[in-house]
Amino acid sequence: MNWQSAIEQTLRTTTANIARFGDQFPIVSKGTEKYELEDQTSWTEGFWVGILWLSYEYGQDPAIREAAVGAVASMKRRVEQGSHLDHHDIGFLYSLSAKAQWIVEKDEQAREIALRAADVMMKRWRPDSQLFQAWGPEGDPDNGGRIIIDCLMNLPLLFWATEQTGDPLYAERARIHAEKSRRFLVRGDDSSYHTFYFDQKTGDSVRGGTHQGFRDGSTWTRGQAWGIYGFALAYRYTREPSFLETAVRLAKYFIAHLPADQVAYWDFDAPQQEGTARDSSASAIAACGMLEIAAHLPEGDPQRQVLLGSVNRSMASLTERYFTAGDPAEEGLLRHGSYSVRGDISPDDFVIWGDYFYLEALLRLHKGTPGYWYER
Q1: Would you call 150 a catalytic residue per the annotation?
Q2: What is the structure's pLDDT at 164?
Q3: Cβ-Cβ contacts under 8 Å for 185 (sequence gap 6 or more)
Q4: How far apart are CA 99 and CA 302, in angstroms?
């Protein structure tokens, strides 16, 4: 597969989108070829900034760098004002924006922005239940003791903060949360819960459930993909073997439940029939996660070959069947992403995180560039 050609096509779309988006941020399309744009109000703004930094690293286009720097300045104002940061997705926002600029340019102000964001995330720590609360204010009756599998991708910001500052507390809490996620979000058959509830005062486990999956006991595919990548990254930072083992288990389950074209439906347990929504973003995330796992397995390990074979098949299918290939009429990169099929929110559309992880996977395959989850 010609990954370089696909990358060049993504750069054409990205360059056009800089002019189209201005100082706003894409999140999803809603039944059209255009992205809905928003200000700094969601958990998703970092993905567009990450696309800009990846594109700049690859092509060194100064116009793309200018857009990326401007977007980081917007992220700086947001963290200084503390606006719309009352959730755990601080890593999605700031690993791919300010921390990315630090990784690419060693810009000291960008480093300080990312560290400030890590401090904001630390305020989500709940000592009684020993977890980072996903949503809602402290003590919230519905969400006060709730974790979700997505949070694994926010933990790298904290591991990085320990590396930068020498303060072990960031990484200690990230490790505790990752271990709790391993114990309670991953089921015995290697599938996963989207979310899990704990007693806010005692920390006792209550139940698993879902917010976006088909049902509480089903396996939401994007959640499974977050787990694949998130546990692999937890292993990179901690070298705890159970995290790598868990990432491999989740990956093998994901591979075993893919349909013929190697791109996931939105939930592995949803009826797979004509009209059932896909989630191309789940497959893009899983591809990145499997490539991360492969980096930690010996060359001759048969599991490594299984993972790499799946990545190549899935990415080839995404590129041949789902990729817009630089079509000037379309603002997204990957068609058929789903935000929330359960909530009927963009069930079959462009989603900006799908675009980001697709580009990251392309660059991993072509140049070994691993995105901005850790320093190279």
Answers
A1: yes
A2: 98
A3: 147, 149, 192, 193, 195, 196, 208, 227
A4: 34
The total of other beta-carbon atoms located within 10 Å of residue 43's CB is 20
Rg (Cα) of the chain, in Å, rounded? 19
Annotated catalytic residue: which of 23, 61, 89, 199?
Answer: 89
Respond yes or no: is residue 204 known to be catalytic.
Answer: no
Catalytic annotation, pick one of 86, 107, 140, 150: 150
- Residues with Cβ within 8 Å of residue 274, at least 6 apart in sequence: none
**Which CATH architecture is the domain 3-367 placed in?**
Alpha/alpha barrel (1.50)
Residues in the chain: 376
In the chain, where the domains are located? 3-367
β-bridge mates for residue 196, sequence order: 147, 208
**309-363 per-position pLDDT tens digit:** 999 999 999 999 999 999 999 999 999 999 999 999 999 999 999 999 999 999 9
Of 156, 298, 304, 170, nearest in space to 230 by CA: 156
